[in-house]
Amino acid sequence: MICKLLTGNRAAAWGARLARADYIPAFPITPQTEIIETIAHWIDEGRMDSRMTTLESEHSMITSAGAAVTTGVRTFTATSSQGLLYGMEMIYTVAGWRAPFVLVNVSRALSAPLTLEPDHNDVLAARDSGFLQIHCATCQEVLDSVLLAYRLGEDEKVRLPVIVNLDGFYLSFTREPVEIPDDAKVDQFLPPYNPGETRFRAGDPISHGVAVLGGSQYSYFRYETHLASLNALEIFEEASKEFEELFGRSYQPVESYRTEDAEVIFFMMGSFATKAKDAVDRLRSVGRKVGLLQPRLLRPFPVKAIVRALAGKKGIAVIDQNISLGKGGILYTELCSALYSMADKPVIVSFIGGLGGRDITREEFYEMVAVTMKAIETGEAPPPRLLYSKEELIQMKGLQSIARVEQRKGRGKR
Amino acid sequence: MFRIRFHARGGQGIKTASRILGTAFFLEGYEVQDFPRYGAERRGAPIFAYVRASKNTINERGIINKPDLVIVTDDSLLLLPIAGVLLGVTERTVLLIATDEATELWKKRLNLQGLVLSISTQAAVKGHAGLPLLGAVCVGAAAQLVGVISKSALEEAIHEQLQPLGKVIVEENLAAAMTAYDQIEAYAGCTTEREDPSADSYESPDWIDLPFEDASTSAPYIHAAATTLNVKTGLWRSLRPVIDLQQCNRCALCHIYCPDGVISLDAKGYPQIDYQHCKGCLICLAQCPLHAIDAIPEPRQEGEIS
Predict the structure, then answer these.
(1) Which whole-number Å values give the CA distances from A33 to A104, A272, A396, in the listed order?
(2) Fewer CB in 10 Å around end: N or C, chain A?
(3) Residues of A in contact with B200 (CB under 8 A)
(4) What is the DSSP secondary structure assignment for residue A74, as one 8-state letter?
(5) Which of B26, B50, B61, B210 to probe by mutation at the A interface, max A CB count within 10 Å?
(6) CATH number, domain A254-390, options 3.40.50.920, 3.40.30.10, 3.40.50.970, 3.30.540.10
(7) pTM score of the predicted model
């Protein structure tokens, strides 16, 4: 084992290398490209024994990944944002094929307006596809999650593809100390993929993803896929136990940080969850009973573990780095449905922040606790709050006034 | 925790510099996080890089709003509001500028209360391409300013980060960094880790409820034509492509390959570069089959930076 400074992207590439991925269909997109560049270098230098093919789009790339894995080769691919959306038809399709491979998504907010910086609307667009989703908060988690993802997706009781998600910039381009496990230990944790009866051979052809009409058979296949996804909760715990024994790091479907005696809990996922952790430590040092609950698995959603962790809590500040336009924060909605039947539910306050990579400051974390404390006192949650300051709006108005001058000048010319 | 912010123009090697500093801290037993931030990758555009180093686990993430040390490799950025060089700079922030103007002048111009240090670009060690190695110079100085990085850790970090680029590049960057390290010895350790204010008292964020505005205001449009002409992207250039028309055979490859469409053909079919908008990516130079395009360091003219 060695410990090195690695970006999230390189950590993802290391995950693919250690998992001995045989086949890598690829297509570049910022901020993901470093992953396939790194793997391409390794293949070129003979350090990784894989076949990489660059496809003409993400749609083809995901098709190729799904097709390859049904022949029994371990498959890895990566994309981001617009690329994930471009391939969305096949995201749903390959999950229906029950083709287990790992797709690393480097989160980047969606157009329009176009941007490069992260939020989670891209990966959440794949929420209902059948792909399992693991959300990472550190570069170490990225590497480890790729290994866990193969164990999870390839398990006979699951057989589904897995998205490992990391935030663009805040993880993808950020270097942190990462422990790179030994090959031999990884081989022990992750033996070669055995597709069993689902394997496709040219000499013994089968059809994947057949057509069904009338709804009844469709219902069967879809619900079976749902049950397979739910199985992943149990398999995740088994796999992570073994992972801990081998590598010394423990991963839960939902991570609790200083929640035991906490009254207010931050509920959020992704790399900014470490900022919440930082705020928890600082608030704890002045006697506030605050904690963090961070779902690592978003699909399947670990409802029971979340209910267990939140029993007896007074208030929850849900921080959504996404927005379902016309509804609000997606995690907020998911959490509310999970807690609906709970007796003595906590007050749940919805915050939407970090859209398009906007920072969430330490003071904003403090303030979210203050707002949630107040909601506990009054027993009533305030309306959802976008983390957006007066100063930001003033800056926006400044830009708009420039645009208006340009508009007038343009009209004058015409 | 040390919080260090770099400001540079794309192509000056600041991402690499921040990684060298991060690696040097790591070799000295620190937990480290380093991170560059930029838009569409491009030479000459303002870019940022951040280094955090601490003896404890680092849970902070992303941009650094309250830096202990700010390093600026291109003094034209100081006058560019979008570069945000002075964001969160207080009297205890150390500002290191690669500049050939007097520090007193910058202190006065920017109304700075804290320590301002300068490092000469003209006197800086130059690389084999004839340009000052500003990234290496700044990282050498920064390593001295934080006071916890030894010369040997700095040397090892440079080797680790630059070794794939070959011996010549390692050696010239080592020379540049070590010279700066020695040059700034009098200020060793003057950048210190800041005590953070208690969570008990903080300035509440000034959140507002965003009002509805109709689509004529709130859709992301630019209500004017040809606005890219107004943006003088030529200012981003650090190297200027120059075409030797004596050698040119009018094959037009430079015109075809220019990603910004700033090489036009005149009536006789000779290429002409629009220097107001050429960003200096030098793809033309790489494409020219006759090697009739050369790159020269960009002359900075008076008033050009404003």
Answers:
(1) 11, 22, 31
(2) C
(3) 286
(4) -
(5) B61
(6) 3.40.50.920
(7) 0.93
